[in-house]
Design a protein that fits this description.
With 262 residues, the chain is of the alpha/beta class. It has two domains: 2-33 and 211-243, no CATH class; 53-190, no CATH class. It has helices at 7-50, 56-59, 172-179, 211-249; strands at 54-55, 74-81, 87-94, 97-108, 113-121, 140-147, 159-161, 164-167, 187-190. It has a five-stranded mixed barrel. The protein is elongated and about 100 Å long. The two termini are 58 Å apart.
C-alpha cells in the first residue's frame, strides 16, 4: 500500500476526501436548509390566507422587529405617506423582467413610521427610472403583508441617481440611515387595489422546489467519490500484486542436455 504515499495518489486522496466533506458538511446541509426555508415560507403564506387581516400593532408591537412567525400575515394600518423619504430598490426582477420597487414610509396614526413597499415599476430606456404615480396625500388605510428586511451582502448605502434615492435591497435600516427617520424594522408589502399601490408584487411560488432532491444528489456524489477512490486504490493494488507475482516466477528454464564424453 506504499503507492498511496506517492504525490499523485496523495493529491487524488486529498481532493476526493475534500469533495466528500464539502458534500456532507456544506452542500447537502445548505440544500436541506433551503428546503426547510421554502417549506416554512409556503406554510406561512398558506396560513396568511386563512387568517383575517389584523391591526399592524397587534402583530408587531412598537419598537419590535417582525418575526418569522408573522411574516406574510395580512395587517391593516392607517396613516399618511411620506413621499419625501421615498426610496427605490434597484436591480429587482419581477416575472423575469427588470423592475424597481417603490418604498415609501408611512407615518401611522399611533406615531410609528413604517416602510411600505407600494409595488414595482418597469425601467425605461434600459435602466432609467420611469415616471409613476405619487402616493395619496390624505390619510389612508392600507392592507398589506408583513415582510422581513432584506440585506445587501456588500452593505452598500443608499445613493441618489436621476433625482431618486436608490437602494440595493428592500431594507428599512438602509432607508432609515439615508433619511434620518426612526423607521420600524421590516416593511409592509401592499396587497392588491390599495391606496398608493403600483404594480402588485407576486407572491412566491408555492411549490417545494428542487432543494430536497439536490441535497440527496450531493450526498450521493460524496459517496460515489469515496467509493471510486477505494475502488481504484484496490484495482491498483491488485495490478501491482499480479506484476510482482509475475516477476518472482520468472520465465521457465530448460536444462541443457549433457554432452557425452568421448
Amino acid at each position: 500500500m506504499r503507492f498511496l504515499l506517492r504525490p499523485s495518489w496523495l493529491a487524488l486522496t486529498v481532493a476526493v476526501i475534500g469533495f466528500a466533506v464539502a458534500c456532507y458538511a456544506l452542500l447537502a446541509p445548505w440544500q436541506f436548509r433551503r428546503n426547510d426555508e421554502r417549506s416554512a415560507q409556503n406554510e406561512a403564506i398558506s396560513a396568511s390566507f386563512a387568517a383575517p387581516a389584523a391591526p399592524f400593532g397587534q402583530l408587531v408591537p412598537a419598537g419590535a422587529e417582525p418575526s418569522n412567525s408573522v411574516q406574510w400575515r395580512l395587517v391593516t394600518v392607517t396613516g399618511r405617506y411620506l413621499p419625501d423619504a421615498e426610496g427605490l430598490a434597484r436591480l429587482r426582477s419581477i416575472d423575469g423582467k427588470p423592475a424597481f420597487e417603490v418604498l415609501t414610509p408611512l407615518r401611522t396614526t399611533d406615531g410609528r413610521t413604517v416602510v411600505v413597499n407600494r409595488g414595482f415599476v418597469r425601467p425605461v430606456q434600459g435602466t432609467q427610472v420611469p415616471g409613476y404615480a405619487p402616493p395619496p396625500s390624505d390619510e389612508v388605510t392600507l392592507t398589506a403583508r408583513i415582510r422581513l428586511d432584506e440585506s445587501d451582502p456588500q452593505g452598500r448605502p443608499a445613493f441618489s441617481a436621476e433625482g431618486r434615492r436608490q437602494l440595493y435591497a428592500v431594507d428599512s435600516r438602509t432607508l432609515a440611515a439615508a433619511t434620518n427617520l426612526p423607521l420600524e424594522r421590516g416593511y409592509l408589502q401592499l396587497a392588491d387595489a390599495q391606496p398608493g399601490g403600483l404594480g402588485v408584487l407576486p407572491l412566491p411560488e408555492s411549490d417545494a422546489g428542487p432543494f430536497l432532491s439536490y441535497a440527496w444528489q450531493w450526498l450521493a456524489f460524496g459517496a460515489f467519490a469515496l467509493f471510486g477512490l477505494v475502488y481504484f486504490a484496490r484495482l491498483e493494488l491488485l495490478q501491482r500484486r499480479e506484476r510482482r507475482a509475475g516477476d518472482e516466477s520468472g520465465p521457465a528454464t530448460v536444462a541443457e542436455p549433457q554432452r557425452e564424453r568421448s
